[in-house]
Amino acid sequence: MRDPESAWREALYGPEGFFTRGALPADHFRTAPLVGPELAEALLVLLDRVDFALGRPARLDFVDVGAGGGELSAAVRSLAAGSLARRLRVTAVELGPARRVDGVTWTRSLPERVEGLLVGHEWLDAIPCPIVTGPSDDPWLARWWPLPAGATAEVGAPRDAAWADAVSRVRGAALAVDYGHVRADRAAGRYPEGTFAAYRDGRRVEPVFDGSCDLTAHVALDACAEAAGGDWVLVSQRDALAALGLVGEIDPARWLDTAERASRVAELRAVGGLGGFGWLLHGVGVRTSDLLPPLPPWRP
C-alpha cells in the first residue's frame, strides 16, 4: 500500500494525474487571477519597485510558478507598459501541458536564475507532503506542528524545501501567495484533522487518489519563511494589496466601470475570503522595506 504522500503525488502529477492530463484550476475553484486584472496590476506595482531597487536591469523577469492556465502570466504581460514592458521576460512554470500565451515562455522547471520577481500563487499547497496521525516523532512536526495522539497533520518539509530552492534562484524578490496557517494556531489545536482536502467542479469533495480531483492542503508559511531565510515579511493579501494601491475607490463620473472594479477589489481583499491569503515576501539583494511598508503580521 502506498503512503499518502506518494498517492497524492501520483494523483496530481502521475501519467493520469489531475494536472498532467491538463486540468485547469479555473474549472474547479475560483482563484484571484480569475477575478479580474487587479491582482496583476498590483504585482506590476511590486515588480516596478523590485526593478527600481535592482537599478533597472537590461532584462527583468516575472516568473509565475504553478501557472495553471497562464491567466496571471498573460495579464502581467498584457498590462506591462513603458520601459518595464520592453525589458520584461515572463515565464510560466507548470507541469501540465504548455498553453499558448502571447509573450509568455512556458516551461516545466524553475529557471536557474531569476532577476526580478518570482511568484508562487497557490503553488505550495499543491506540493504533496506526508500526512501523519499522532503521536509522531517527526522532527518537522516537533518544531512546527506539535501533534497530540489521534490528531492529524501534514508534514510541510517538502514545501519548505521547494520554497527555499525557489528563493535561492532569485535576485530581487520572491512571493508566495497561499492559504495556510501559523504555528501558534497549529499548536493550539485549531486543525485537529489537518487540512487535506479535494475539489472538483467548484465543490469540495471526498479526497480520492484517482486523478479526478485537485488535492491540496494549507501551507505552513511561517515554516517556509524560515527555511528560505534572509529578509522576509508575512502579511495578509488584504493589507498587501492596499499597500500596492489596490483599494477599489469609486469615481462618480465613471460610476459603472469603477463600481465593477471596486467589487473585484473587494473580493480580492475580503476578510474570510481571498483577502485572508498569506503573502510571504522575500527580498534577495533587495530590502523588503523598499517593497512594502510596515504592515500587521498575517493571522489566518
Structural features:
alpha/beta; Rossmann fold; 7-stranded mixed sheet; 3-stranded antiparallel sheet; 11 helices; 14 strands; globular; transferase; methyltransferase activity
The total beta strand count reads: 14
Any idea of the CATH class? Alpha Beta
How many whole angstroms does the radius of gyration measure?
Answer: 19 Å
Strand order of the largest sheet: 3-2-1-4-7-14-13
- The span between the termini is 35 Å
Question: Roughly how much helix do the residues carry, as a percent range?
Answer: 25-40%
Mean pLDDT: 92
Please identify the structural class as seen in this structure: alpha/beta
What fraction of the residues are assigned to beta strands by DSSP? 15-25%
What does the largest sheet look like?
Answer: 7 strands, mixed
What overall geometry do the principal axes of the alpha carbons give?
A: globular
* Helix count from the secondary structure assignment: 11
Protein name: SAM-dependent MidA family methyltransferase
Pfam family, one: Methyltransf_28
Organism: Saccharothrix coeruleofusca
Keywords: Methyltransferase, Transferase
